[in-house]
Specification:
This protein is α/β, with parallel strands linked by helices. The protein contains nine helices and eleven strands. The protein starts with a helix and ends in a 7-residue tail after the last strand.
């Protein structure tokens, strides 16, 4: 006789299909090795949704302890050529199998989404209006341009409030930027594209040392708020949507990543 509790739970493939369709996953190319979508399956049913930024061993352990059996991550399990399944990689696989933990990865599809993407949600939290998108990757824009026309000091205050862990501000541009570019995570690819897009202000996660000189030379405002911190929004939003659709609980699995 089948477990009546499972009869009320969505199947793994129902949840995967919802995520795939909500993110238009098949239409958005990603960096080599990203492998968006279902990355590790479970026994076929989902009882609790989880969200985490990284597919790390510690987030997996925390998810298992929380009773999560479907974990949505932004940085997935596969970024490099296949390695021997030993050491930490073996322990990840073993933990997933022993705890019936399915893992779903959503990288660029969860950056460029116009409603539940990292960039879109960050703009909304800063009370900025999306005006355009820029920085295409294989035909899909992954960076957002917002309109705000606010004092630079006000923008900085909003960022410091939203990211209490601290931000790095390089302020060499206009004191009242009318347009603000947003690219969560790594902003390295966006800095050189700002002037082409008619923007002198960028909010991102992390920068490199040479970007200070570029900001001085080109007159840019650059705000680095943490790669991890700027990419918690999308997985939370997707997890909450999936959970609400199926009447399930959901939980964000946080780590103390300072980067």
């Amino acid at each position: 006789m089948r477990d009546k509790r499972l009869l009320r739970m969505p199947s793994l493939m129902e949840v995967v299909t919802y995520c795939d369709e909500r993110l238009s996953r098949s239409l958005i190319p990603d960096f080599p090795g990203a492998e968006n979508g279902l990355q590790f399956e479970n026994n076929g049913h989902v009882t609790k949704i989880g969200a985490a930024v990284d597919a790390g061993l510690i987030p997996f352990k925390k998810a298992a302890e929380a009773g999560i059996d479907f974990l949505i991550v932004h940085h997935g399990m596969f970024w490099s050529p296949p390695y021997p399944v030993t050491g930490t990689l073996f322990n990840k696989y073993k933990l997933c199998v022993e705890n019936n933990l399915a893992v779903y990865g959503a990288h660029l599809p969860l950056d460029c989404h116009k409603e539940i993407g990292n960039n879109a949600i960050l703009a909304k939290k800063l009370k900025l209006k999306t005006a355009d998108w820029f920085l295409e990757y294989q035909g899909n824009p992954i960076g957002l341009i917002a309109e705000g026309s606010l004092e630079r000091s006000d923008l900085k205050n909003r960022l410091e409030t939203l990211f209490p862990g601290g931000i790095t501000a390089i302020e060499k541009g206009s004191k009242q930027p009318e347009k603000i570019a947003i690219l969560t995570g790594s902003g390295a690819s966006a800095v050189s594209e700002l002037q082409k897009a008619g923007v002198d202000t960028l909010i991102t996660g992390e920068l490199k040392q040479n970007h200070f000189n570029e900001a001085e030379e080109a007159g840019l405002n650059l705000y680095a708020c943490g790669h991890y911190a700027t990419e918690t929004f999308g997985v939370r939003a997707l997890a909450e949507e999936v959970a609400n659709k199926h009447g399930l609980e959901w939980e964000f699995i946080a780590t103390d990543c300072p980067l």
